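ok so I'm stuck.
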Amino acid sequence: MALTNLEVVSVPVTDQDRAKSFYAEQLGFSVDMDSSFGGGMRWVMLRPPGSGTAITLVTWFDTVPAGSLKGAVLGCDDLEKTLADLEARGVSFHEDDVQEAPWGRWKTFDDPDGNSWVLQQSTPGFPG
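replied:
not stuck anymore, here's the structure
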């Protein structure tokens, strides 16, 4: 057995249109797919720029309520520039100051449903 990568992360939301707008317009994700599938459900898949991993905005998992995703990490190579870009697009961050640890620097934010994300610039070479 050889696992090769993380392909898709399900992000539980209440309103796929509102969430799609947030991820595409405010975070700058590309929309890979938006189509219907069985039972009147809709597959909305987006991807961060340059990422191999996508997210899908899900409404159909009773055991995964909207807003229950916590601590997913989005990487960036220039935290201050990315913070400024996202704040200009209306993204609000929880902390006033950038948080720091040996592995990197970060701030956190929520999507419209309360799914919590970490925007992080990793420390080069950590853990080394």
